[in-house]
Amino acid sequence: MELCDLTAHEITEIIRSKQASAVEVLQSCLKRIAAVDGKPGSLDSAAESEEDRKKVHAFISVLEEDALQDAQKVDRMIQNGEDPGLLAGVPFSAKDVYCVEGTYTTAASKILANFKSPYTATTIQRLKEKGAILVGKVNLDEFTYGSSNESSAFKPIPRNPWNTAYVTGGSSGGSAASVAAGEVPLSLGTDTAGSIRQPAAFCGTVGCKPTYGRVSRYGIVAFASSLDCPGPLSRDVRDAALMLQAIAGADRYDSTAASLPVPNYLAALEDGVRGKRIGLSTDYFQISYPDPESGELLQKPVPDEILAAVQHAADILRDAGAEIIENVPMPNTRYAIPAFFVISRVEAASNLHRYDGVKYGYRGGKPGDDLLSMYRKTRNEGFGMQPKLRVLMGMYVSGAQYAEQYYNRALKVRAMIRRDFERIFDHKGSYRLDALLTPTTTTPAFQIGAMGGDSVLMQYADQFTVSANHAGIPGISLPAGFSNGLPIGIQLLGPDFSEASLLQIGRAFEKGSAAEPWRTMKPEVLK
Amino acid sequence: MSEEISPEMFKQLAALAALDLDQEQADYLRHELNQQLKAIHELAAIPLDDDLRITPHGIVYDQAISPTPREDVWQPCADPQKILNQAPQVEDQYIIVPDIPHEKLD
């Protein structure tokens, strides 16, 4: 096993005990990147070679020099007997929507390809202050709009390390792929409809979407501001807890960052699940999909292997002392995607109006064009199809004549989805759940190109994750086995600010399944 | 089901969105918008409770979690050049905006 294959908590231990230096760990990660990542994502539209199709392509930029300096600093502190912080010498990647002063922050879009951030996101700042080493920025769906990374303007798109013919999921696909392929032990993603949890499930990593407001959004390129959540992707639950510990908390630069104190996520991690009440809902065992002609929502059962993974996890948690409550009703789950189509588009359109070719980013057209002409050429040439779709839909459903029919109605449906969760997590209610256990996704990863540009089908890939974004509650996806060589993820959803409890339950599942043969499987790109 | 967004309405939307689209893009985008609207129409059939309150976020920002807004204090920008360096066109520390077309109203 190489140093880069260790977990973050193992890395901090060996660096603190001087069994390896931060520089050695970083070099191991850089060596792995050189071996498996292939050419970085860029606007170069050259056709992919056979060799390209065998690589991961998680990274857009590798910040080798800065990372080396940061690693040397950690080593100096260790030598001087100083404490470099909770994440001493742990390499991490960040989705390319996180601003890092002096580096490019592209959002995987042509319109931001030349944008050099003049400031640093709070989350990145906090990780660096705690000794973590930023290795580079990773690819994503353009502006985070997608569930496969296929919409990135930066090619080649990331490929699933378990089978490179398959998608990584998205939008934090580069994050999940970089962690799964052993390029970094930790990555910072963002989750607006499942963009941390879905790629985590597809790539066999842990992915945690914290409660809305638990982690500052300052310095992150926005998608839908009432739904966006930054959070960790990692190889195990302890690492997710470590990263969350480092980034959570109030922030004077983000008025939505909650002022609630941050608990010690590591303290109760090993306390087990005795007495915890964990629910199962048949509403999460049905896949909803719209009839292509009428739009009517139809339903079919989730694949057997997905259902079996959830039931197996419930058995493990039951054996560990949890009480499993079956048939928990979540009747509004099926409306989460239609409501998301409206709310997220309105917010995305609002956020996308700032890209105008005047203040920063790409400018289209030619010198001498008037303002309107420049706007239109800039936005047409700079945006890919997904941002364009969101601008158009957002403007349509929030128009004065349609707002009541669409936008206000969707906000009320969001409140109904929130109510479903309040009812099952109510300590005085009938269910009194600590967590709801569900599949993370309706299927394992799908083949690259399988969706064929169908934006509706792509959105429905998020149907088990998006409710948590509407409700604002935390969720965590955990690796739970394989189907035909591709990872399956299970999801735990909990009440507001219950991250410590979810991590504790996740850790109990991890321990309960530690001896299972699938835990020893390695991604195809490492064979 | 008829298409909710007609070619004419789409043209108007694209103009408002400041998007200069070619026909191939317009056809794809209009098709996808209409498909998405079919999915969205499901919302119309949901019976809504009278007491449903619209909130700006899923979670409730009560006193326990709401940060106190910081004082609104003017501060100089440490390095305005960093901001200006991002602009496509700058002159004498000003960001240059292309000519704004004027239309004379009757």
CATH superfamily of the domain at 3-264 and 502-513 in chain A: Amidase signature (AS) domain
Profile the largest sheet of chain A.
11 strands, mixed
- Mean of the pLDDT scores of chain B? 91
Structural class of chain B: mainly alpha
**Total count of strands of chain B:** 2
Runs of chain B in which pLDDT lies below 50 for 5 or more consecutive residues are none
Shape of chain B: flat
Write down the CATH topology of the domain at 3-264 and 502-513 in chain A: Amidase signature (AS) enzymes
| First-to-last CA distance of chain B | 42 Å
Work out the helix count of chain B.
3
Major sheet description of chain B:
2 strands, antiparallel
The oligomeric state is heterodimer
Can you name the CATH architecture of the domain at 3-264 and 502-513 in chain A?
Alpha-Beta Complex
Largest interface: A-B, 84 and 59 residues
- What share of the residues of chain A does DSSP label as strand, in percent? 5-15%
Radius of gyration of chain A equals 22 Å
Q: Give the H and E element order of chain B.
A: HHHEE
Euclidean distance between termini CA atoms of chain A = 12 Å
Supply Rg of chain B.
23 Å
Please tally the β strands of chain A and state the result.
13
Note the overall shape of chain A. globular
Task: Describe this entry's structure for a reader.
The complex is a heterodimer of chains A (527) and B (106). Chain A has a domain at 3-264 and 502-513: Alpha-Beta Complex (Amidase signature (AS) enzymes), CATH 3.90.1300. Chain A contains 15 helices and 13 strands. The model of chain A has no long low-confidence stretch (mean pLDDT 96). Chain A has 527 residues and is α/β, with parallel strands linked by helices. In chain A, the strands form 2 sheets. Chain A has an 11-stranded mixed beta sheet with strand order 1-3-2-4-6-5-12-13-11-7-10, sandwiched between helices. The longest helix of chain A is centred in the C-terminal third of the chain and has 22 residues, at 404-425. With 106 residues, chain B is mostly helical. Chain B has a domain at 1-46. Chain B has 3 helices and 2 strands, in the order H-H-H-E-E. Chain B has helices at 7-16, 23-40, 80-84, and strands at 90-91, 94-95. Chain B has a two-stranded antiparallel ribbon with strand order 1-2. In chain B, a hairpin with a 2-residue loop joins strand 1 and strand 2. Chain B starts with 6 loop residues before the first helix and ends in an 11-residue tail after the last strand. Classes of the chains: A alpha/beta (527), B mainly alpha (106).
